[in-house]
Amino acid sequence: MMRALYTAGSGMKAQQFNVDVISNNLANVNTTGYKKERAEFKDLLYQTMDRAYVLNDAGKPVNLQVGHGTVVSSTVRNFENGTPEQTSSNLDFAIDGEGFFTIMGPQGTVQYTRDGSFKLSITEDGMKKLTTADGYAVLDNSGEEILFDPEVNISELSVSPRGEMSYKDAEGVSVPMDQTIGMVIFPNKYALEAVGNNLYSSNSATGEPVQVSEDENAKSIMKQGFLESSNVQVVDEMVKLIVAQRAYEVSSKAIQSSDDMLQIANNLRR
């Protein structure tokens, strides 16, 4: 009887974690470039009371086993593209494909984002620097900060689908800036670690980032004047929330039933 209590308890804990993941998805439904997550589960250790065997054309064809519940094994992020929304701002960018912008994050570590709502910051020597809303520098495909001369009119800034930047001078002539906004892809993007502020960190499981500008087969392009919306579908998340709630209730009913059976057993001598 005690096995049922702990097994059902593991189900309640797993569904509570599932609700936490779904709640985070719903909370970020309007977060630029957010990618929804889902919780994955695995069953726990099994107790084998009788094994299947065959001996001299006789035996038992099936096992007699009982499990000990479930546990969360991982959270998997869905990197499906969100809907691009037009903003008409020259400093807003959306990526159509699997790429990520490169950012110089805290403590000088390179991090990555799908949030292309960039801003301008002024350096000590009067140059303009492309940054995120938190002030982190946006990097080019060489890992350098993207700087603009004071005479560059940002309203005339133009960025190609591959990230090459240019601007129009006073005479309307297009002047290349010889800088390309860094956009990378990963061999295993699902191993990227979310660190908050719409940023991701790479690790040994992601593989080394590859610049899209150096890969002719890369299918990621940059859209200027657009932002990528979250790929969270509210209706889908609400259905998952209801299913998780019902599973939580069923596990709690199993605990209640086990407790009632233990109470009956304890009262047999009365």
Automatic annotation (TrEMBL):
Residues 94-166 form the Flagellar hook protein FlgE/F/G-like D1 domain. Belongs to the flagella basal body rod proteins family. Pfam families: Flg_bb_rod (PF00460), Flg_bbr_C (PF06429), LlgE_F_G_D1 (PF22692). It is found in: Bacterial flagellum basal body. PROSITE patterns: FLAGELLA_BB_ROD. Keywords: Bacterial flagellum. Its main location: other. This is Uncharacterized protein. GO terms for biological process: bacterial-type flagellum-dependent swarming motility. Residues 5-35 form the Flagellar basal body rod protein N-terminal domain. SUPFAM superfamilies: Flagellar hook protein flgE (SSF117143). Residues 223-268 form the Flagellar basal-body/hook protein C-terminal domain. GO terms for cellular component: bacterial-type flagellum basal body.
